[in-house]
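Task: encode each sequence below as structure tokens.

Item 1
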Amino acid sequence: MIEKCNQVSDSSLGRRRPHNVRMNSSGKPLSADDPHAAARGSIVIATRESRLAMWQAEHVQALLQSRFGLRVSLLGMTTQGDQILDRALSKVGGKGLFVKELETALQERRADLAVHSLKDVPMDLPAGFALAAVMEREDPRDAFVSPRYENLHSLPQGACVGTSSLRRVVMLRALRPDLRIEPLRGNLDTRLRKLDEGQYDAIVLAAAGLKRLGLASRIRDVFDTEAMLPAAGQGALGLEIRDDDAPLGAVLQQLVHRPTWLAVHAERAVSRALGGSCSMPLAAHGRWVGEQLQLSAALGHPGDPAAPLLRVVLQRAVTEAQEAEALGNQAAQALVEQGGRAYLQAAAHGG
């Protein structure tokens, strides 16, 4: 479990430290003096404080303790993405708002490692940081959650469905153009509470988060990936470190799940090539068919519900990250050739 945090004298967003971080004679965390925490045998994980984020950080904490004998503490933080709940992410800076404070903690050596839901991690990390590992993926699909209706097709005409993902909005409209789709922000528990209060007839959430928190019983149906293609990296955990921390990087490499690692490299390459952001309804998902990686990608128009959803499916043998990225770049180019450039221009100009 997380060690409870004391507020330090700097009260700015997210600046906290856990009780059990060892301090030097100057009152600074030892990680500020020793750049290689893994070599020292003790690391600090920076994490958001939502229940799901804490589960993910504690999962990594337990693995590092049991497999490598490391002393691991958690540094709980509140990010801007957690605080801004009255506006869509695409209007206030995108999903990078969920990781910025964690990266600041890494940069200032108040933490050594950050655990992220990979779909929240920008495609290009700032200088000085590295994605050291991607762990085995949970269920990557989207889940239909409703107290009254069994699935999307059982919703009555004009029913209200909650989501703030433009990707989900576009795909829901393709499946049920009659639905009224309303914004839904907040952590997983907040979203479920809003549903239970009757603000929505149904909501769409990532199946992985519900399963990790033991809430699989809330799932009434899961969307087939052909109908609701997942976001790049959905269901996977990414471990971010400072790029100069080679000892910790070597430890975390042992947690890499290679099939997931290669799949998400292809998915994230699609998004990177197209300049993917919260203002762009873009999906990419890789699955293994024997020894080959099948990559599906889709791009929707951000402002025109009548515009067709562009899709591509490619498949090839992939054994290295560079090959996965090449597959992703090829998929991105295929979407552009289908007419995607106009969609990208619309996204850049706010739809």
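Item 2
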Amino acid sequence: MGKKSEGEPKKKLKRAIGKEERSRPNKKKLKQKKSQKPKKKKSKDDYSQKDEDENEESYEDFILPGQKFSTPPAGDATRAFYESLLEQRPDSMMAKKYCVEYGCLDADKANEYIKELEKKKKKK
């Protein structure tokens, strides 16, 4: 076991790989990238030409007054934070604004908070 015969291949030692070696791409990956066809760039017109049906459907989610964004799920951490903040400090404008914009409130509360937010904007 101690000595190896000359015919046996030497085992390669594993060594720590530095940043330089880690960042080098494999030759196989380079060949794959070169063989891929380049993607066409979309023009500005492609982005602006959407079906009217798609636009109408996206606004159906925002049925509450003052809602600008889709309502996050009940388990969302941000939503839980702002709802608990609103419970603990009912005068918090930051929590009111979030809950109105994300549709976390019922319609009556949302209308009430919208009026308060508009008054606050007019004061500034």
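Check on item 2: Residues 72-124 form one domain. The radius of gyration is 30 Å.
End of task.
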